[in-house]
Amino acid sequence: MGMTLSICDDLFQLAHSRVGILRIREQTFRYTLAAAVLGDLILEEVATIDDGHVHPGKAPRAEPVLATDGRIYRGWTPVRESPLTAYLYAALTADNANQRTVRTWLDYIALWAYEAAARRLAVDGKVRQVPFMLRRGTYQEPTDVKYDIAGVRIAHTLGTAAWKKTPRCDVVLAALLSIAGLLDDILVYPDTAGMCRDRLTTLISELPPPLKALVKEAKAALDGKVLAAR
Prior knowledge:
Blueprint: H1 6-14, H2 26-43, E1 47-50, E2 53-56, E3 63-66, E4 72-75, H3 78-81, H4 86-92, H5 102-110, H6 113-123, E5 127-131, E6 138-142, H7 149-158, H8 168-180, H9 183-186, H10 190-205, H11 209-229
Helix pairs in contact: 1-2, 1-8, 2-5, 2-8, 2-11, 8-10, 8-11
């Protein structure tokens, strides 16, 4: 199997409404999505964070590719390869890449992650791209009525006695939703929302150092962008 991008995919879906409208400012979403991409790379051990810098891990796994003539090859499809997986790994292993900070990588990935994720999800049949009627742009309309299932899953887990068993990918996703101002969209029950936030804070503090550093850097990057925009 090839590399999965669960945090990136789930964040993309949860950041858009049922009709495909982005719920938050585009710049906020771009930086949060960039952090999601790095989070997926860290979980897959393709990258890691140490001393504020991003370092390469092991090479991404290849996945079988079905060609148009029905034959199967081993390798990366163009959609998978550029730029979310092999392309980014190549950048991580380039000369002087280890000298680049997490913030630099977030700036870089934020430039193209939105378009790349939208294109890949469209090819996978998870979103339908619908042009705006009166202005330039595209709605990213989900094709599955359960497009927000990741949010339901996180809210349910944080609200139960099994909250300490929340998967790391969901902890990172919930942390990024919180940073982007989207956490309230999934914590729909006021009586338990405060408890769920406290539990999430605890889970974030227990993340492995690379993921904990990623959440911290993502928040700092977003805070800096918000202040700069005022």
